[in-house]
Design brief:
alpha/beta; 12 strands; binds S-adenosylmethionine; 6 helices; globular; 5-stranded antiparallel β-sheet; 7-stranded mixed β-sheet; about 260 residues; Rossmann fold; 2 domains
């Protein structure tokens, strides 16, 4: 496994109050009580845990041992047995679990963490390899808030900005963002998230997470899925029923 870029920041992941409200959406897309679900990039189990009650079993894969450790803790605390939910370390661009699933998901923009075309191609091969006959995959990215020029302009700044703050045991954690850089033609963002934990006014911890967010515009995202040989079943513009292209998210369900 490569270095875990989330080793220090993972403990603040679940504090984010601005996270998308997508759990009900995924619950409703489970194709039946006996369905086997694969979550690619399951992280701390934010979506995985609530789905355990509505499917046969769910298998999570993530590249970050720190995120998985938190997920395993939550599964243990909730006494969810391994027959219902299992998670393991793995790279979702080169995975072979040797079994197939009725539904594959990658909630909260996991797909945008894939920087290169080779990783994207690898991801789609992984999806194909793990889809059961009749199975479907739901992928999500955010819809960029501006056109390419607007995005380049917004990302030329590089200064730090306040993002959110939440109480934590004994104090509070504040998250700041920094638009570190953008690849000007491939529209790949390189944001930095800086978490600062305070007790009273004293800074007691600081963790920085540098990630990759590759951007996709609505037609481009659809085209990418079609060009990888899949058939689009349904599309949404967000988790509140927005039409595709008209909401904050791009969500596509597809199959072979
Ligand atoms: C924004 S988090 C989403 C976590 C979870 N799906 C959720 O909805 O809360 C992105 C996750 O994708 C994982 N990830 C990114 N690239 C990956 C890769 N190549 N293989 C496996 N996991 C990956 C990260 O470690 C991280 O936990």
């Amino acid at each position: 496994m490569p270095i875990d870029i989330r080793a220090e920041a993972a403990r603040y992941y679940d504090c984010n109050p601005d996270c998308v409200d997508d759990i009900a959406f995924y619950r409703e897309r489970i194709p039946g009580q006996a369905a086997n679900v694969l979550e690619l990039g399951c992280g701390t189990g934010r979506v995985l845990l609530p789905l355990t009650g509505v499917c046969g079993s769910i298998h999570g894969v993530d590249i970050s041992e720190a995120m998985l450790a938190l997920c395993r803790e939550k599964l243990a605390r909730a006494a969810i047995p391994p027959s219902k939910a299992r998670v393991e370390a793995g790279d979702i661009t080169r995975l072979d679990l040797g079994r197939t699933f009725d539904l594959i998901t990658a909630p909260y923009r996991v797909f945008q963490n894939l920087e290169t075309d080779a990783e994207v191609d690898g991801f789609f091969s992984v999806v194909r390899k793990h889809l059961a006959p009749g199975g479907t995959c739901i992928l999500n990215v955010f819809k960029p808030k501006s056109d390419r020029k607007g995005l380049r302009d917004r990302w030329s700044d590089g200064s730090e900005y306040f993002s959110w703050e939440q109480p934590i045991e004994g104090g509070r954690v504040a998250c700041y963002g920094r638009n570190a850089r953008i690849h000007p033609t491939r529209m790949i963002l390189y944001p930095e998230l800086i978490y600062r934990a305070y007790q009273g006014d004293a800074l007691v911890d600081e963790a920085t997470l540098k990630i990759v967010m590759r951007c996709y515009y609505p037609e481009e995202f659809e085209r990418l899925i079609l060009d990888h040989g899949f058939r689009i079943i349904q599309r949404w513009g967000g988790y509140a029923g927005e039409p595709y292209g008209e909401g904050p998210e791009l969500v596509i369900q597809f199959s072979e």
